[in-house]
Each structure stands twice: as C-alpha cells, then as structure tokens.
Amino acid sequence: MDIAIRENGVSIQAVDTIPTLQAAVDRAERESLPLFAYFNDADVVTWYLYTSNKLLKDRSRTKRTIKSYEREIKQFIQYIQLYQDEMDLDVEWQDQQFLRSLSPRHIRKYQEWLATSSPYVKENAEKDKTGYSVSTLTRKTTVLKQFFRFLYQNKYISEPLHEGLKSVTVRSDDRPNRDMGTEDVVRVLDAFIKTKNIFAFTIVQLLVATGIRNEELCTLQIQSIKRNINGEDYLEIMGKGNKRRDVPLRSSVKQSIVYYRQARNVSPMESAAIDSPLIPTKMGTFFSASYLTQTLHKEMAKIQHLLPFDVNRITPHVFRHAFAIISHENKVEPYDIMRSLGHERLDTTMIYLEKIFAQERHASHQWTNNISNYL
C-alpha cells in the first residue's frame, strides 16, 4: 500500500490500487457489511481522494481539488502526531487504525490549536503578523468536515467527528480588499507600458479582459483559442469541477499574446504544438498557479513608484474581481457577470460586488431637498 498513516510518518499519494479497493467494497456489499469493512485508514483515504460517484470522469474532482484535500488531511494527521501533547489529546495510536481512535473532542481541540497555537500562527506572531485568515480556516474546516462526514456516513468510524468542528463564518470585513475599478486597472496597465513590461502587461490584460481564474490562465493551451461561426475568437475554459465555458478573446488581447510569445522567443501560435502553453514561462513551460502569483507580485513591486495604492495586496484574483466591478460599472446585469465568471451561484458573484453596492446605495446619494445645495 502506497499510503501510510502511522505514528512514525504519513505518506499520502496517488496509487493504482483502486481496482483492489473496489473488489473489497464489492465483497463487503455481497456479505451485507458496511462498504469499508475490509478497509484500513490507508485504504479509506485513498478511496476518498481518488474515486468518484460521478459516472463521467470529467465531472469528477479536479487534480487541484484532490491535491488540496490531500494536503489538508495529511496536515491534520501529521500535526496530531507531532503536537498531540500541546493539544492535550489522549489519542491511542493503532497502526493503520488511527482515524477510528478519534473522538469529536479531539477534533475540537485540534481546530482550536490550529487557529491559536500551531507553528504557522507562532511563526507569524514572531513577525508581528496575524495567523491564518478567516477564509483559510474556513477552507480547512470545510475539507475536514466533508472528510469526516464521509467516514461517518459510510460507517468507517462510529462517532460523528465532523460535529466536533466549530463553524467559521466569513464576514465581509474579514475578506481582503480586492476592489479595483477601471481607473486603477488603467493605471496598472499604463505603468507596465511605461516600463515596457510586455510580460506583466499581457497577463494583467488577459486576466481583466476575461475574468478567468489564475489556475485557468495557467492551463491555457494553444488549442484553447477557438473561433465561432461569426469568425470571432474565444477561449475554451475548463473551470472548477471541469465545467466548460467560452470566454470572448478581444483582438487587442490576442495581439498582446502574440507580442508576449515573441518576447519569450517561443514558436508563433500558428506553428506551435496545440497542447503547448499559450502563456509560457521563461523556460517555455506552463506556469503553476503559485509561480504566476509570485511572478506577478514581483512585477507589481517594480511599478509601485508609479501607483497611488499599495501593490502588496494585488494578486491575480484581484483582477478577476476587477472584471466583475468593471462589468458592473458598464451596467452589466449581475446574472450575466455570474455566468461570465463561471460561478454557480449569484451569491458568490455578489461577494465581488458587495462593497461597490454598499457605496452606491448609501442614503446620502438619494438626498434631493435643499440640504443638497450646501453639501
């Protein structure tokens, strides 16, 4: 077994044992036993991460989602191994049966320790910085809650561990300020033109013009550019949950990509391999999401002296917010913005616009009597 969950170490990785695990599930079903009667911890984590109840593979979790879940589950196990004394836990380790030895109080204590005393929190405290953001704690809680609920519903564990996790509510004030409208985006683009930075200019222009996610930009291939029946270019995007959407590609943005590729000294789009990166790194490879964020951060720092706002807060995702805000400034309906961004729910889109709406709907904007002559 390529997954090990023991007191002396944790290793979680993709394996080719799913057919064997499926046979064990089938055997349990034939014998009218719980599905995971013949599983140990390694088996159940593998099954949870790498199987799907979806018939079509392109409807299953993305590799990025799997890695995110894997990282959180692995961190949870490792931290309890290393810091259980700090958390004041009384976990009895059983080789490959660790998860069955937990109770809701262990989960509650872990969550409290993670938010207040974990290594990341202590390290940031030494630098006079805050620990995990509310949104990060929310994400970690959500992943673990889904995992523990899965184990309980499938009778691998006998206690509802997910009920030991406290909810983490993200208030609007907890969210970082990611508002950039037309004026700020123009300032950024002008600064990159002034400094002749075609690389950063193209990335920002592409993000703002399309509203695509950082990860979506990183995976763009030459063949991602399509043409509709009207002869207009668009990008075929595979978003979260492997959901496809078509995003118009303005001619000016496409031309910037041409210049970008020329400056990178890579093949023109017409002769490049169709599965090669549309926006390559210096090495001609695909960006990773983290590397693109780091690269953009460095390029933004170079133009700080040309901008009236702090660039440290700017990430690729800020320009996705800018797409939504600029669309709103141009009287686009929220529902159309939602569909363009690839959101499933309008509530998600409204998070992008909530500060703008609050400002526009302030009561003072509706004053029409004589007092308005003096204010």
Question: What's the total number of strands?
Answer: 5
Quaternary structure annotation: single chain
Number of domains: 2
At CATH level 3, the topology of the largest domain is: hpI Integrase, Chain A
Strand line-up of the largest beta sheet: 3-4-5
The string of secondary-structure elements, in order, is: EEHHHHHHHHHEEEHHHHH
Distance from N terminus to C terminus (CA atoms, Å) equals: 73 Å
CATH architecture of the largest domain: Orthogonal Bundle
Largest sheet: number of strands, sense, barrel closure: 3 strands, antiparallel
Mean pLDDT: 85
Overall helicity: 40-55%
CATH class of the largest domain: Mainly Alpha
Radius of gyration: 25 Å
Point out poorly predicted stretches: none
Instruction: Compute the number of helices.
Output: 14
The backbone outline, from C-alpha atoms, is globular
What do we call the CATH homologous superfamily of the largest domain?
A: Intergrase catalytic core
